[in-house]
Amino acid sequence: MICIPITAKTNKEALQEIQKSCLIADFIELRMDLIADGDLDDLIPAIRSTKGSVKIIVTCRKKEEAPAANELQGTRSIIKNKEIGKMDLLKKAIAMKADFVDIELTEGPAAISELRDYCAKQGGVTGIIVSYHDIKKTPSLARLKEIFHQSVENGAAVVKIVTFAKSAEDNLKVLSMIPYAQKHPQKIIAMCMGAEGRISRVIAPFLGAYLSFAALAPGAHSAPGQLTVRQMRQINNLIQGNRPNKSEAVLSSGQDLQNYVLLGNPVAQSLSPAMHNAALKEMGIDGRYSAFCVSNLESAICGIRGMDIRGASVTIPYKVSIMEYLDEIDDDALEIGAVNTIVNNNGRLIGYNTDCLGLMLTLRQLMPVKDQTFVIIGAGGTARAAVYGIIKEGGLPIIVNRTMDKGQLLSNKLNCPFYSLSDVAKIKADCLINTTPVGMYPHTDQTPVEASLLAGYKYVIDVIYNPLKTRLLHDAEGQGCRIVSGLDMFVHQGAEQIKLWTGKEPSRALMKKVVIKRLEKIEG
Ligand code: NAP
Q: Quick one: which of 183, 224, 379, 447 could link to 471 by a disulfide (CB 3.0–4.6 Å)?
């Protein structure tokens, strides 16, 4: 449900805003601290007469908790309505049967209980929103829970927690309060302010937040980062397009929506959201996959647990460091030493590695693995997955790496030969697999192995999929090798993630199509 805050400077302008807002809002919040000569005797009847079903919230935000959302607010975020004090104003709203009044937790138990008692005397029509705002930062999760419980103890009909997000993890912390509240059960509004906090405003309704705030028009924001109603609707329509039941009121539920996330840094260029969302939609799963650029892994894990995220993909640079935060790690992932997939099994986080299977499925489509020789260029996470998978299926891998120590270490661990990259000419094998980022966009003129050295290989595989044909693959084709890009591996590792999360098989053909389309767009 969308709540439009009325932030006009004057009573007259507020009446005009009400006319427009009532047409599209489920709730109207009268920000009496901003409407200088705001008069409830005019404003509440105006809302009721325009659209009776719109719910009314009356708020008189204290200055310390009112963010400077626009240039006006620094000077307006105090009660200008001098005739009448804050408590009297809220009581008046209660007497006029406003649906909610909002009072800050920091006003203290006495003030909140005074309002509650008054409300009961007036027939108990009005609910109390007990709100908490931190306009500079997001407190710890433990503190957020404390705030939540204090608000509940103070008799909140709805708890409202709004903090300033400095990072993606701040969003995860605050959003995790929504499922937390649902377990109690308690209505909650929870979101973050600021540019970093925008994503929380989009996600909160889907997690089941009681309502979300959106501005009537640009410049009418009551908090920084607030989207306009139009933007909210556009985003909802986009997401709606990915949901199986289009008649469902997107902004009002979210209870059965399955959330999946990508954790990495950076993630902006990732093709996983497009690929996974297309697959989930085609499978008829009411799910959504979003990318989070993470700088604090521990907080991100807290968010996954708290928000009941069903599953996560993990990418650079967290595939190894994520392991210490998980409850269980699958045997293959443990042997490989890297996790790229997390399954949330009723609060128990289990790590898997689908990169290995993704590569092996690609290999099996191309050639037999057993007794064949493979040169693996690189000794990082992907190389480890490749070497492990090949050995498991009876193939014979040879590690070739730029840095001797790293290559030697992997060779010792998995008991296979190792050569320095400068010695690659000395080796002969059936297949060469590049697991380094050399040649990846935008450095498309680079290659890890000179063209002339590729002639002896029957097959050359590059795990890079952007571009689809790297210089290595061009050169290999020129030498008569059969070539395969990292696209198939990418699709398979993603499909295997969806299988782990949902137990169902996605359409790999569709996923491949989506990725190719995106890549064509990137390549212009
Ligand atoms: P990683 O753990 O950082 O390992 C990178 C490896 O590449 C290291 O062994 C490094 O050698 C080597 N390397 C880096 N720059 C080099 C250079 N200029 N010359 C020679 N060797 C160089 O990375 P990763 O996680 O394995 O990822 C590697 C690539 O695989 C990335 O491009 C990633 O996008 C791709 N990938 C693709 C898929 C897919 O589904 N298609 C899945 C996973 C990963 P040193 O030891 O000498 O530093």
A: 447
Give 172-209 pLDDT, tens digit per residue.
Answer: 999 999 999 988 889 999 999 988 888 888 888 888 89
Region label for 428, one of left (φ > 0), alpha (ψ between -120 and 50) or beta (otherwise): beta
Which of 321, 307, 64 has the alpha carbon at shortest distance from 203?
307
Contact between 388 and 356 (Cβ < 8 Å): yes
- pTM for this entry: 0.63
Tokens 């204290």 sit on residue: 62
* Number of other residues whose CB lies within 10 A of the CB of residue 433: 29
- To test ligand 1's pocket by mutation, which of 352, 402, 445 has the most ligand atoms within 8 angstroms of CB? 402
C-alpha–C-alpha distance, residues 44 and 25, integer Å: 15
229 vs 399: CA distance, rounded Å: 56
**Which residue of the set 91, 160, 187, 319 is catalytic?**
319
- Encoded amino acid at 106, one letter: T
E strands present in 396-463 = 396-401, 418-420, 431-434, 459-462
The answer to whether 210 and 158 are in contact (CB under 8 A) is yes
Instruction: Name the 3-class secondary structure at 18.
Output: helix
Ligand 1 atom 40, closest CA: 490
